[in-house]
Amino acid sequence: MSFRPRHPAPRLVRLRPFGAAALTAALLVCVGVARAEPMYVIEQLVVGVNSEPGGEGERLASIRSGDRVEVVERNGDHARVRLPSGIEGWVRASYLSRELPLRQRLDERTRELEELRAQLGRLQSELADARAANRTETAPVAAAAELGSAQPPAQPPIIGSGAPKRTLSWGWIVTVAVLALVAGFVLGWKALDRRIRRKYGGLKIY
Predict the structure, then answer these.
(1) pLDDT 10s digits, 33-77
(2) Of 12, 44, 177, 193, whose Cβ has the fewest other Cβ atoms within 10 Å?
(3) CATH of residue 69
């Protein structure tokens, strides 16, 4: 009889429970950092940031409507977020949105409208100054015409008066353009206001 040499069976390398858990946690952290995305807290909320999902664990911080956070991990209905201060914790994912709350967007449009109104006021003041300068320069010509001068020596002022007229026309063009911008922002502001009222059942929350 011939005997064949026995080869030792291959051994299966098993990770210890602690090592496997550490490796899984490291992979989750890497994936979470790669997928971090900016989000905003939705309207009319003060949200607690906890050390564990589901509102459990230590309360680390509080965030309010419009605060910007970064989502670094998701676990069911909860999300782990990173605050601007560097604190990380868990909140309900339904409290977050990719867009600013309607109220803050309305505030931004209101500030832009106020800036346009201030710019319009400055342009109107410049236009009034240009009109006054135009009247001052044409006054000697009108006085000479009333005296019945055959050839009034006011030809250079008449030729030079073209510059104020051009300034006046440009002032009107700029004024009309700014008025059109203001009208556009007013229409946008009213549309946003209607959206907020529909969302909150006709209530004015600002």
Answers:
(1) 446 777 766 665 788 888 888 878 888 998 888 888 999 999 988
(2) 12
(3) 2.30.30.40
> Are residues 90 and 106 both part of a single domain?
no
Q: Is 8 a member of any domain?
A: no
Sheet holding 46-50, edge to edge: 59-64, 46-50, 88-92, 78-82, 68-75, 37-41, 96-97
Q: Could you tell me the residue range of the domain that residue 86 belongs to? A: 33-97
Q: Any bridge partners for residue 12, and if so which?
A: none
Distance CA 103, CA 199 (A): 11
pTM above 0.70, yes or no: no
CB atoms within 10 A of CB 30: 10
Q: Are 70 and 41 in contact (CB under 8 A)?
A: no
Do 113 and 179 lie in one domain? The reply is yes
Q: Kindly state whether residue 2 falls inside one of the protein's structural domains.
A: no
Average per-residue pLDDT for the chain: 71
For residue 104, the surrounding DSSP H or E stretch is helix 102-146
Asked if 126 and 76 count as a contact pair (C-beta separation under 8 A), the reply is: no
